Amino acid sequence: xxxxxxxxxxxxxxxxxxxxxxxxxxxxxxxxxxxxxxxxxxxxxxxxxxxxxxxxxxxxxxxxxxxxxxxxxxxxxxxxxxxxxxxxxxxxxxxxxxxxxxxxxxxxxxxxxxxxxxxxxxxxxxxxxxxxxxxxxxxxxxxxxxxxxxxxxxxxxxxxxxxxxxxxxxxxxxxxxxxxxxxxxxxxxxxxxxxxxxxxxxxxxxxxxxxxxxxxxxxxxxxxxxxxxxxxxxxxxxxxxxxxxxxxxxxxxxxxxxxxxxxxxxxxxxxxxxxxxxxxxxxxxxxxxxxxxxxxxxxxxxxxxxxxxxxxxxxxxxxxxxxxxxxxxxxxxxxxxxxxxxxxxxxxxxxxxx
Length: 354
Prior knowledge:
Layout: E1 3-10, E2 13-20, E3 29-38, H1 41-47, E4 62-70, E5 82-85, H2 95-98, E6 124-128, E7 132-134, H3 141-144, H4 147-160, E8 167-171, H5 175-186, E9 190-194, H6 198-207, E10 213-215, E11 235-238, H7 244-250, E12 256-259, H8 272-277, E13 281-283, H9 290-300, E14 309-314, H10 318-324, E15 342-346, H11 349-352
Parallel strand pairs: 8-9, 8-11, 9-10, 11-12, 12-13, 14-15
Antiparallel strand pairs: 1-2, 3-4, 3-6, 3-15, 4-5, 5-7
Helix pairs in contact: 4-5, 4-9
Catalytic activity: 2-deoxy-scyllo-inosamine + NADP(+) = 3-amino-2,3-dideoxy-scyllo-inosose + NADPH + H(+); 2-deoxy-scyllo-inosamine + NAD(+) = 3-amino-2,3-dideoxy-scyllo-inosose + NADH + H(+)
Cofactor: Zn(2+)
Function: Catalyzes the oxidation of 2-deoxy-scyllo-inosamine (DOIA) with NAD(+) or NADP(+), forming 3-amino-2,3-dideoxy-scyllo-inosose (amino-DOI).
């Protein structure tokens, strides 16, 4: 039996272990040989103890690779097919699924890839057949590994429902915030990205088109430089997940605040009368439904989402990879600082060049 390396969560920290490669135990299983996996904010939160995950699970969920083997019920995919993994499970049978709300499927326990089911920071992963989607021949694995975060972004952009003349403020210039700004700009919205970390702000400026203004913090809360969105943004997308109160202070009347970032213990105190009298809408979009993952795959063929990937590391260099995202796995002598925007862990260098 083939052996693989896998990044396993042990005592709250990732450890590289050698394991037997997963096999297709069920008729609808697809075994994917992983090319590369993106490190998500969720993965970072897990190793920092800010997001819960199952002890002993293989981490990772933003991945692409090549089909290795399939179960007897799989007819659409064959060994050798290039695929991207959709890690967000839906059963198709529960009430939310039947109502067209598969993103809120109630049968997720034990099926969240990289959280409570073995994930993609490994040489191979097994997923049900509906969760491995064929890639266009022209799409690199580098770009395909960013399809999953793009799907997260599309869910929140759809929830924001921007009007043609809306002014959009994206708060947080990490990979998700930068992708948000890229998508809003692609749709023609006047877009400003606010990021206080100077390294990430500089990276975002290099990645985003000239029409997107990237600014740093100017004072407390979400204060913007003079002249930037002087009448307030019509849409605020908070990718940090902790700035709802500040977002409500600056959003224009009749505007929308999208709470996108997920922080396990985040809380907010909201004055309700201004919320009502100013006609402000607050929304949390939640996970993406299946059709938006497919939309992200289509859009990725035209949008240069792979530009957010600033660093790649072999799976064996996972410590350096997390350190580049201000998440050192060992005691540091200096405060943790970002050195990267988006980091990919490469499981198979031969595949990842494709």
